[in-house]
Amino acid sequence: MAESKKRKAVTKDVEEDAAVVSGDEFDFGQLDGTLSDDESASASESEDLYSGAEDDSDAVSIGSDSLPSEDSDEDILIPKEEKESNSVAIGASESAASGHHQEPENSEDEKPNYRIVKDANGNDRYEYDEIDPGDDSDYSVPDNAANTIGDIPLSFYDSYPHIGYNINGKKIMRPARGEALDALLDSIDIPKGWTGLTDPSTGKPLQLSREELELLKKVQMNEVATDGYNPYEPTVEWFTSKTETMPLSSAPEPKRRFVPSKHEAKRVMKIVKAIREGRILPYKPLQEEEEGEQDEVPNYDIWADEQPRPDHAMHMPAPKLPPPGFEESYHPPAEYLPDQKEKEEWEKQDEEDREKEYLPTDYSSLRKVPGYGRFVKEKFERCLDLYLAPRVRRSKLNIDPESLLPKLPSPDELRPFPTHEAGRFLGHQGRVRTLAIDPSGQYLASGGDDGTVRVWTLIPQREVWSVSLGVESAVNAVRWRPGKDTPILAACAGDDIYLCIPRLGTDSSPEADAAQAVLDAGWGYAASESSGSKPPSIKWSRPSSSLREQGVAIVIHLGHTAKTLSFHSSGNHFVTICPATTVPASQAIAIHTISKHQTQLPFRKRLKGGGSPQAAHFHPSSPILFVANQRVIRAYDLSKQSLLKIIQPGARWISSFDVHPTSASTAGSDNLIVGSYDRRLLWMDLDLSPRPYKTLRFHEKAIRAVRFHPATNRYPLFADGSDDGSIQVFHGQVTSDMMSNAQIVPLKVLRGHKVTGGLGVMDLDWHPQHPWLVSAGGDGTCRLWVS
Amino acid sequence: MAKQKKKGQSGQAKNYITRTQAVRKLQISLPDFRRLCIFKGIYPREPRNIKKANKSASHSTTFYYTKDVQYLLHEPLLQKFREQKALSKKIARSLGRNEVQDAVRLEKYAMPKIKLDHIVRERYPTFVDALRDLDDALSLLFLFANLPSTSAVPAKVIARCQRLCHEFEHYLITTHTLRKSFLSIKGIYYQATIQGQDIMWLVPYKFVQRVTQDVDYRIMGTFVEFYCTLLGFVNYRLYTSIGLVYPPKFDVASDERGAELSAFTLEGHRVAGAIDQKEDEQKMLTNGHGQIQNSETIQAQIDKIAQEAEVEDDTKEDENPEEQADSGTIDTFTPAAPEGDILPQPDLTGDEASTLFSNFTFFISREAPRHSVEFLLRAFGAKRIGWDAVLGDGAFTHDETDPRITHQIVDRPALAQPLPALQGQSDPKDQPLQAIKPGYIVPGRVYIQPQWIWDCVNEGKLLRTDLYAPGATLPPHISPWIKPTSGQYDPRATLEEQEPAGEADQDIEEEEENADSAEEVETDDGDESEDGENEVDAGDMDVASASSEAESEEEVADGFAGFEGTEDADGLSSDLDDEAQHQKELEAEASGRPIPVAKSKEDARKAKALKARQTAQSKKDEEIERQKMMMSNKKRKLFEKMQYSNNKRDLEAEKLRAKRRKLERAGKGKA
C-alpha cells in the first residue's frame, strides 16, 4: 500500500500543477497518525474491513459509501501534494457538496472517524479518513488525474488549451510546451525514464521507470514476467564428475559388498518357489500349443456361403495328368512289352530323352511288383511343374488335316492332257519359227528360218505341201484361216504376207476351189475402191506365176517384217504386227480384210508407254482388239474405235498372249494368259483386276509362246513353251460362276526339244479337237504331243 | 494428334514382371516367395511376346503376371513370413550365445502359426473348384502317408497325411463313389466321381520309397502343408454333406496295431458303417491298456475279438440292407409314353458299386496288399472282410478257417495239389484240412488273385473266377481309362477288327521275307542262333537242311518279286496273271523242280490284292503330294505338323498290331 501511494505520489508530483484543494498542514500529521494506527494496531480488523468492503462493492456499487471514500481519499491526498506544489485552490462548492453527502454517516458512527474542518463559509465540514481498499481489492482506483475522454483522438483537442477532463470533470490543461531552448535542453540531458513517446492519455512525454522497462522487455521476449526469476542461473554441481585420487575415507570395503544379499536371495527364492508351484509362468502357457494342434482339424465349412467366381481369362488351371495307358499296367497285354531291341534302346537313352519314363514290364502276379523307384521324383517333378512351369493357353487346332488340302479335281477329271511325244516333223532347215494346225485338225503348217512353209499331215507325220517364200527371209508366222471348208494359210515372210491355198491331197478339191473363191472375191472390190485412201505402201497383189503354181494366191506387201499374225474368228480379218523399232508407229499394226483385199492401219501414233507392239489378237466373240506392247495390253473397242481397258500384267517384256476362247460368252469374264520374256506366265482375269490373278514362274528361261486349247469347254488346257526347251501344260478351268475364280492346276512338263542357240520352243499350237499339242523347236523339229 | 505411346509403358511390358522384380517388390526372400506362390497358387506365365514383356532384354527369365504379384502384396501371410524371419534371427542369436534352451523355447512356442484357411477359400471359391483340383493333392498326400519319417518329413506330417487320406477313403467307402482303379507299375490308380468331378489319384505300393538327392522336400512339404488344409476342409464338407460328424473318432491304439481304415469311427445321425460297432467294442477292450500292450496281449485281444465278431455278425448283416434302403438314392424315371423327352439322369453306378461285392465274405491272405484290397472291396460294397492277423487290426475275422468266408484273396504261386476230393463237394481243389498251412486250401471258398477285384471293379460286374485262380496265368490287366478311338490300337478288340485291310497279309509277306533273309544271314554266318549242342553234334546236318529250305523259299519269293516287277502299273488282268503262272510252271518244269501249285495260287491271289493296295496307296500319296503343291507355304507347314502326330499314332498302332500278330501266330504255332 505504501508503495502504491508512493508511486502515486511520484507521478503526481510531476504532473499535478493544477492542484485541487488546498489543505491545512496539520491534516497531514493526523493522517499519518491514522495511517500508522491503522496499520499497526488492527491488522485483522482492517482485513475484516477489506472483506466487508469487498462484499459491499458488489451490493452497493454506486452507493454513498464508495463515493465519499473516494472523495476523501482525494481530499486526503491533495494536501500532501499541495505541500509541494502550491497551486490553484479548489472550488468551494464542490467540497461543500461532498460534505453534505457525508453527514448522515457521520451521525451513525460512534467513534468519530472524521475531522471537522471549517469550510470557506465557516461551516463545519467533516473530513473522513480515506478508506484504503488495499492492494487486493479489485476495486479500481481511478487515477484522478487520468484523462477521461476515452477513445477519441487527442487531435480533437488541438485547438483547445486543454486536452481532456479528469475524473472530476476538470479540464486537464495541455502541458506547457517548453520553449525551443527547453526542448533543446531536454534533448541534451535525457531525463530518467525518457522514452521519447507521448502518453496518449495525458499528452505528456511517456516516461517509464526502469522496472517497467524490464517488465516490458520480458513480456516482449516471452519470458516469465515475474520478478526475481532468473532463467540463467549458474549450474550447481551436486555430484562432481571428478574422481578423487585420494579417497576421502580410508575405511575398507565392507563385507556386505562381497556377500550375496540374503534379502535378495529370499526374494528370488520366493519367485522360484512360485514358479515351481506354477503360480508364476515364465513363458506362454503350454496348452496353447495343444489348442493350435486342435485347430488344424477344420471345424467349420469353408464353403458354407460359396459363390462361384466368373472365370478370368488369365486364370489357367494346371492341366491334369493324363490317365495311365495300357502299357503302364503291371500286367499289360503282351504286345505292349518292348522287345529286346527296344529295351536296349530305352536303356541307352538319356533319362531326359526318354519318351516314357518307365519300361513296360510284365509281372505275372501282383506280389512280384516292386516299388517304383521314381515315384518320389515324379511327384516332385509334378510339384515343380505346378509352381514353376510357365503356363500359357494354347488353342489346339483340332481339325482334320485333310480339310486343309485344297479341293483339286481328281486327275481322272483332268485327263486327257498331252503326256508324251507321238511324232516329229523333220524337214525344216534351221529353226522352225512358227506352226499351226488347220481347223479340221488334219494338217500342220509350219514355217522356219529356211524360208519355207510346209504343210504336214499330223498322223503320220508326212510332208504334203511346201512352198519356199524366199531363202533369205524367215517365215515368222503361219496361221490357218478359221473355217473348215476353206483351207487358207496365211504366212508372214520377210516384208510380205502370203495367203496360200495349199495343195492337200488331190489337186482340185472342192475345198480348194472354195478357198480360191474366197480369196478372189476381193479383187473386184479392190479395183473399185482403188481410188480410196489406201496407203500406197501396202499392196495386195497376185504373186508370181511360180508361186501361184505352188498355191500362193495373194501377196500383201507390207514393207516391214511382220512377226505375228492373228485371224479374227470369222476369218475375214487378220491382224499383223511389225514389232521392229524401226517401223513407223502408224504402220506397225495392220488389219487386213480378206473379202475386200484391204489393209487398214488403225493406229496413227505409237502406243504410249510400253515400247513397241508385240502381239495382237481379236476377241473371239466381241469386236475387241487386244494389242500388247512390251509391258501393257490394251483392249480397243473396234465398233466405237476407243480404248476399252489397259491391262498391266507386270511383265517386263511380253512375248505373247492368248485370249481364252470362250471368254465372256460362257465364262463371266475375259481371261488372258500372258507369257513374258522374264520367265513369267500370267493368268489375267480382266474383271477381277488389271493385275494378274496368278503368276506362274516355273520356267528357267523366257517364255515364247502361250496358247489356250481352242475347245476349252472340253479340254480346259493351256500350255506355254519356253526357251529352256520345255512345254508346260496346265489345267485352267474357268467357271461361269462369277464368285469362283479360275482354277489352275499344273499338269505336265513336256521335255524333248533341244535348246539350240539359246532357243528352245518357238511356237505352240493345240489340236482343235483333241488334247494334242504341237510345238515348234529351235532345233528344227516340230513335235506332236498326245495324251 | 493422339498422345504418343511410350515404349514399355503399357501392354505386355507392364502386364508381366520377372521373378526378380516380383521378389524385390514383395520384399521377401526367394524361398519365401516360392512358398507364397505355392500357397497362393501363383504360377509363371509365358507372355505372348517375350521380347516385349522383357523390354527387349534377351536373357531368358520367368515371368509372372503383374496383377498376381500385386495381389500377393496384400497377403496376410507376408506378415507371418516376416515374423518368422525375425524369430529365426532371434534363434540364431540365442544359438550364437550358446543359449540352446532359449532357442528351443523360441522355436517351440514363439513360431508364428500359419493358417491357410483363407487361401483355400480364395483359391477355391466353390467346393466344386476344390474337387477339381484334388488330383494332385491326393496323390501327394498319399505319397507322404506312405513315406518313412525323416528329419525332412516329420512323423507328425506323415500321421496327419495318413489320417486325412483315411478319412477321405472312408467317405468314398460310405458313399460308394469310387469308380475305377488300376494296378500300374507305378502304383495303384483310383478314380472317384464326387459331385460330377472325376478325381484320379495314384497311391504307391507299400514299399519304402527310394529317395534321391535331387528331391527337395521343402518344396513338397510346402505343397503338403497346403494340401493338408485343403483336404481337411474338403473332408469336413464331404462328411457333413452326408450327415457325418467330422472329424471321425480316431483310435490311436487301434491304429498302432495296424487297423488303418478301421481305426476310425464314423459318427452320424443316420449312417453308421459296419466298422463302428465293432470299433466301439474294440475300444472298450483296449482303452484300459492303451499302448503298453505287447504283441502277445494284442494277439490275445485279437482272438477274443474274432470270437466276438462272429456273434455280432448276424445282427450286422440284418442292419445293413435296411440302411441301404433308406440312403437317399434317386429313382430311375422311365418314360411311360413314347412321346416325351428323355432326361439324362446320373448313372446308377453308385448303386451298382455298393452291391458289387456285398454278398461275399472275403479273406485276405497275408501276402496280398491288405490296405488297397480292403479299401476297394469296402468301396464296392463288401462288408465282411477278414484277414490274417499279421496284417493288422480291425478285421472281420482273423480266422482263416471261418466257414462264412466265400472268397479268399491269395497271391501265391499255386496252391497245393488237389487232394482227393470228398464226395458232395463240387470244387476239386477242396481239401479237408483244418489247420491251414501255407499252400493248403480250405474247401468251400473261391481262391482268387487280387487282380480279380480290380478287373471286376473296372468292368462293373463279377468276372469268372477261374481265370484268376492262384497260379493261373492272368488275363492282361488293362487301363479302364483308355477308350477305343479310331486309329488307335485297342487291345480289347480283336486284331481283325482294327487292322486296315490287307495289313496282315502284307505283314506276313514281309515277315516271310524277313525270315528268309534272316535265315540266309544265319546260314552265312554259320548258324549262330542254333544251340551250341547242335552246332557241335550235328551242325552240318542242320545247316544243310536249313539252307536247302531257305533256298527253295528264296526261289519262290524271287519268282514273285520278278512277277511284280514286270507287271505294268496301269492295270493288271487276271489272264496276264495266269499267263505268268503258266510261265512259271513251265520254268519250274524245265528246271526240274516240283511245281508249287496250290501255294502259288493262293499266294498269287494275295499278291494281287497286295499289289492293288499298294498302287492305291501310292496313288493316294501322289494325290496328296499334288494337293500339297497347290497349298500356300504356311498351310503346307501346318498340314505337315498336323500330319506328324497322326502319323506317329498310326505308326505306334501299327507296331502294336504287328507285335500282336506275331504273338498270335506264335500262339497258333504252338497250338
From TrEMBL, chain A:
Example of a GO MF term: large ribosomal subunit rRNA binding
Keyword entries, A-Z: Nucleus, Repeat, Ribosome biogenesis, rRNA processing, WD repeat
Can you quote a single GO CC term?
preribosome, large subunit precursor
Q: Which domain of life is it from?
A: Eukaryota
Q: Basic and acidic residues bias: where?
A: 100-126
Q: Where in the cell is it found?
A: Nucleus, Nucleolus; Nucleus, Nucleoplasm
- A Pfam family (short name) is WD40
| Role this protein plays | Component of the NOP7 complex, which is required for maturation of the 25S and 5.8S ribosomal RNAs and formation of the 60S ribosome.
Q: Which HAMAP family match?
A: BOP1 (MF_03027)
- Subunit and partners: Component of the NOP7 complex, composed of ERB1, NOP7 and YTM1. Within the NOP7 complex ERB1 appears to interact directly with NOP7 and YTM1. The NOP7 complex also associates with the 66S pre-ribosome.
Q: What is this protein called?
A: Ribosome biogenesis protein ERB1
Q: What is the lineage of its organism?
A: Eukaryota, Fungi, Dikarya, Ascomycota, Pezizomycotina
Automatic annotation (TrEMBL), chain B:
Annotated gene: NOP7
Domain BRCT, by residue range, is 352-470
Q: How does it assemble?
A: Component of the NOP7 complex, composed of ERB1, NOP7 and YTM1. Within the NOP7 complex ERB1 appears to interact directly with NOP7 and YTM1. The NOP7 complex also associates with the 66S pre-ribosome.
Kindly state which keywords UniProt assigns to this record, in alphabetical order.
Answer: Nucleus, Ribosome biogenesis, rRNA processing
Concerning InterPro entries, the annotation shows: BRCT_dom, BRCT_dom_sf, PES
Residues covered by region (Disordered): 310-350, 496-671
Alphabetized SUPFAM superfamilies for the sequence: BRCT domain
Biological role stated in the UniProt entry:
Component of the NOP7 complex, which is required for maturation of the 25S and 5.8S ribosomal RNAs and formation of the 60S ribosome.
In terms of Pfam families, this protein maps to: BRCT, Pescadillo_N
- GO BP of this protein: maturation of 5.8S rRNA from tricistronic rRNA transcript (SSU-rRNA, 5.8S rRNA, LSU-rRNA); maturation of LSU-rRNA from tricistronic rRNA transcript (SSU-rRNA, 5.8S rRNA, LSU-rRNA)
Protein's cellular compartments: Nucleus, Nucleolus; Nucleus, Nucleoplasm
Q: What is this protein called?
A: Pescadillo homolog
Q: Which organism is it from?
A: Capronia epimyces CBS 606.96
Compositional bias, Basic and acidic residues, is annotated for: 618-628, 647-656
Family of the protein in this entry = Belongs to the pescadillo family.
Annotated GO MF terms: ribonucleoprotein complex binding; RNA binding
Acidic residues: compositionally biased ranges: 310-325, 496-540, 565-578
* Gene Ontology terms: cellular component: nucleoplasm; PeBoW complex; preribosome, large subunit precursor
Using the UniProt record, give the first listed, main subcellular location: nucleus
